[in-house]
Amino acid sequence: MSLLSKSGLLERIRRGKEARSRLVESNLAKGIAYQICATRESRKMTQADLASAAGMTQNNLSRLESPEYGKQTISSLKRIADALDVALVVRLVPFSQYVDWLSATPYMDEGIRPEALAVPSFEEEEISGRHEKRVLYYELHLPTQVAVPVVSTSQSEFTAVTYHSMVSPANYPEQESKVA
What we know:
Elements: H1 6-13, H2 17-42, H3 47-54, H4 58-64, H5 74-84, H6 95-102, H7 114-117, H8 122-128, E1 145-150, E2 157-162, E3 175-179
């Protein structure tokens, strides 16, 4: 559950360009600092361990984990991501997607298709009504049975998994049967 409501965020970004800039800046500084710290701790690493793996001093890492620091460089973040064996994504997104992300509202990420690379401005989205649109993103249409390979030391087998039309991953395989 998100601590930020979508309606509250929309109200906030509509206050003006300066309010949008402050929101993005705050989230960048605090979000990445908390994420580095949480990921490091989940791996039972000390700051010294991660700093060493990233080729930096513990003092530098300590600053990067501080939500008040706010001066992370892409180069430093790439080194930390590499040390943690995770991807680093840096990209421009429309405010409609940003608000959905902050509020934990499901949204469709259009990836890096050429048509999706040009990001609309806040004003363009407001004019189009994009901030108010509600889109169903998770409707899945799967065939009744899907053959899934099963690793076996003696022979290759396939398992047929019966799926129902589902809206969330919570409804995964109902039954399984061997297929020759």
